[in-house]
Structures are given as C-alpha cells and as structure tokens.
Amino acid sequence: MSTMLDTYQDSATIKSLEREQSTYLKAELKAGFPRYIETRNHELKIKTNIIDVGSISTNELNACLDLIDHNLGAIYARLHGPTWKMDKIKEMKDSGLIYILLKDNSTEVSSKLAGFLSMRILVDGDLSVLYLYEIQLDKAYQNNKIGSQAMKHLSTIPDKINMNRRYLSRFYPLDGISLTVFSDNLGALKFYQAQGYKFSKMSPRDKKLKDKTVEKPPYYIMIKYSSAAYL
Ligand SMILES: CC(C)(COP(=O)(O)OP(=O)(O)OC[C@H]1O[C@@H](n2cnc3c(N)ncnc32)[C@H](O)[C@@H]1OP(=O)(O)O)[C@@H](O)C(=O)NCCC(=O)NCCS
C-alpha cells in the first residue's frame, strides 16, 4: 500500500504531509488520553502531557534520554557501540514525533518525569502505522500498571484516526500500532504480548541453525492491528 507520502518525491512536501499527519495524531491523543493515568498505587498521580517534538524542551529531552539509558543503555551499547546516545538523540528529534510525558504530580512540589511515550505515523513496508518509538518508565514507577494503562489508551487511537473523514481524504487508514523491541528485552516482549501484539510480517525472525540452536535477531517488530472494520 502506498500513501500520499509516497506520491511526492520532494522532501519539503513530505515534511509538510508528515506535519499534517502529526497534527491529526496529536489531536486524537489529546482527545483519547485522560489527564491522569490510573495506577495500581492509588496514591500515585501520573499526569499526561502531550506535546510535539518541536515543543519539547532540551531538559525534558535529556531526561527522556536518561530514562532510556538507565533502562536499556547496556543493550544499546552492546548493539550500537558506545556512541549510541548520539544516534538516539537524533532519532528522538525526528519530525512528526509526538511525546506523551508522564509526570508524577503526587506531591504539590514535585513534578518528576516518571516516564514517556513517543510515536509518529509512518509507512513500514506496505503498512501505514502508528509507530511507537518508545515507552519508558523510570524504574521507581515500573510494575504499577502505568505502562499497560498507557498502552490501553493508545490502542484506541488508530481506530479513532480511521474514523476521521478528513484524515481519510488525505491519507490511507492506519493498519495498527507497530513497535520495535530488543529480542533480549524479555520483560517488554511479555508485556507487549499480553497487550495483544504479534510479530509483524516486517519483523526479523529467529533462525534455527543446523546444530538446532536458535539465533535470535537483535530486535523484533511487533504489531497490533486496527479493527478490520475500517480497513
Ligand atoms: C515495559 C514497561 C513499559 C511496562 O510498563 P509497567 O508499567 O512497568 O508494566 P505494568 O505494571 O503495566 O505490567 C503489566 C504486565 O506486563 C508484564 N511486565 C511488565 N514489565 C515486565 C518485566 N520487566 N518483566 C516481566 N514482565 C513484565 C507483567 O506481566 C505485568 O503483568 P502482571 O503484573 O499483571 O502480571 C516498563 O516496565 C518499562 O519502562 N520498562 C523498561 C523500558 C522498556 O523495556 N521499554 C520497552 C522498550 S521496547
């Protein structure tokens, strides 16, 4: 499948179309996400702040990079070498990205970054998807259902975008939500599978070697399809 983004070669036009998609995405996220995420610990108040990449401050971006480093820095360094952070920060500034900052508003004084999600709409092979670039929670906030609540709200977004006639008059409907997960990140793999994500046809797969051992690719691509009614 191709979208309007494939039809034009010139990069200024592509950028402008990406900006337009990102405006639709941000509007649906703002409508679809509650101001506060419910958590297992009822004393925790996690506030959602939905902003586009152009509006995120350097401090916030660095705090997001620190979370990635604390959670997955060892895997990134092993797979991409010691300079992985330079590539990551570049990726984190990709045009069209929308961030959902999760701030701990439990106390009057603090507004600590508890985690974040980042995403954009893109074409992956023949699929048009909402691509989740990151979901990262500070270790102190993990296992409180914040991640699964955020994913639950996110899962409603493709269908909502697909019901928007103005969006559909400009772009192909979204096939679903896609994401990349390191094959060594077993916790996250289990987490996504529990949310109904499956390996995408675009995903690298395990290889069975002659000696019957299994060689895992560095990462998998997973997808949760939109409801078929809109496709
Ligand atoms: C993965 C992550 C987003 C999950 O969010 P969370 O709020 O901690 O997860 P939840 O409390 O919603 O857990 C939901 C279920 O996911 C599973 N799960 C989550 N994290 C897990 C882990 N590290 N190991 C094993 N299972 C895990 C559990 O089965 C849990 O179910 P249960 O407690 O009801 O049995 C969060 O732990 C995180 O930020 N991890 C580090 C960064 C990361 O790996 N991000 C994903 C990159 S692809």
From TrEMBL:
<dbReference type="Pfam" id="PF00583">
    <property type="entry name" value="Acetyltransf_1"/>
</dbReference>
<dbReference type="GO" id="GO:0005634">
    <property type="term" value="C:nucleus"/>
</dbReference>
<dbReference type="GO" id="GO:0010485">
    <property type="term" value="F:histone H4 acetyltransferase activity"/>
</dbReference>
<dbReference type="InterPro" id="IPR016181">
    <property type="entry name" value="Acyl_CoA_acyltransferase"/>
</dbReference>
<keyword id="KW-0012">Acyltransferase</keyword>
<keyword id="KW-0539">Nucleus</keyword>
<dbReference type="GO" id="GO:1990189">
    <property type="term" value="F:protein N-terminal-serine acetyltransferase activity"/>
</dbReference>
<protein>
    <recommendedName>
        <fullName>N-alpha-acetyltransferase 40</fullName>
        <ecNumber>2.3.1.257</ecNumber>
    </recommendedName>
</protein>
<dbReference type="GO" id="GO:0005737">
    <property type="term" value="C:cytoplasm"/>
</dbReference>
<dbReference type="InterPro" id="IPR039949">
    <property type="entry name" value="NAA40"/>
</dbReference>
<dbReference type="GO" id="GO:0043998">
    <property type="term" value="F:histone H2A acetyltransferase activity"/>
</dbReference>
<comment type="similarity">
    <text>Belongs to the acetyltransferase family. NAA40 subfamily.</text>
</comment>
<keyword id="KW-0808">Transferase</keyword>
<keyword id="KW-0963">Cytoplasm</keyword>
<dbReference type="InterPro" id="IPR000182">
    <property type="entry name" value="GNAT_dom"/>
</dbReference>
